[in-house]
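Sample intake sheet
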Amino acid sequence: MFDELPVSSKTERILTKSLDEDISVEEANHLMNIRGSEIHPLLATADFLRHQIVGDNVTFINNCNINFTNICTVRCGFCAFGKDADDPDAYILNDEQILEKADGAASNGAREFTLMGGVHPDADMDYYIHLLTLLKESHPDISIHGFSPTMIRDACLASGMDVAEGFEMLKSAGLDTLPGTAAEILTDRSREIICPEKVSVAEWIDTVKTAQEVGIKGSATIMYGHVETMEERVEHIDIIRSIQQETGGFTEFIPMTFMHEFSPIFLEGQKNLGATGTQDLKLYAVSRLMLRDLIPNIQVSWVKMGFRFAQVVLTAGANDLGGTLGGDELSEASGAPDGVDASIETLSRMVKDLGRNPIERNSTYTEFYEI
């Protein structure tokens, strides 16, 4: 496969191996650092594996983000969304406002509500159960992809219960899947710089594994391009791989490139923030080579990258475009390049232009709908 390509013997050996088996952390680190003409064979290999594993369908979901509050006690250095309670721009949606958003999305064919917000100081388990019940009673057939490991751990602590009990209650109230947010970079060194008040690496792992044990599957994410090293990016993917080998509970892997322009750490003078386009492509490709069919669905965040570059990343091993979103205020606050709302027609055009098949899906990749 590589006879006519300008690659070193080590890169060729790793790429050839990846066609049949997982690559190691050391091999992944090598690929993360290749440059020049070697990048093209990496992308081609990842795209070939994508085709072998999931074929030429590119999936996405008709969904709606419901960001119920921007009040947050966990003020991360990368986040431009969270506000103090006394900030003039702080808000918390009431039931009527939440249902207005949900009703609008439902009338537009939404299959999922993504329920997310800041870590509100007064949010306990009763509050999150109230939100779930409110949505499920009005729209029982629409799945809820909700909250974050940090939000849930804090709510369980406030309610005097362990995390497993909390997840059992959330599941009974209608939580279908768990977002992989709050993962950021799963190394304590980087987390101490960008999100010291969030869950630790060990706590994040424990929380998602506990959710999966009670039957709540969900996504895994990585947010990269800030203070982490290339090696920490690989370490993060390897942690996700290890969890999936144990539990099989992740439905998708979502790399999220860091949008730095409005982030506190950038405004305070942190330099060299933001991944380059080449780094984005390599991370997606290496993710495919590391995860292979263990997590077959690798999602491109068009809201982070913009429509055009997201289409390019679909040639680097990815097979999913996320969702129509219906408004993602967290990304909007960070400067989403092409807005935070996409139509099915827009996403379909991106896919068809690649010669692939746009397919609408549900939250767990178990139901598919031709467009």
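Comment: Strands lie at 57-61, 63-67, 112-116, 143-146, 218-224, 250-257, 320-323, 357-361, 368-370. The longest strand covers residues 250-257.
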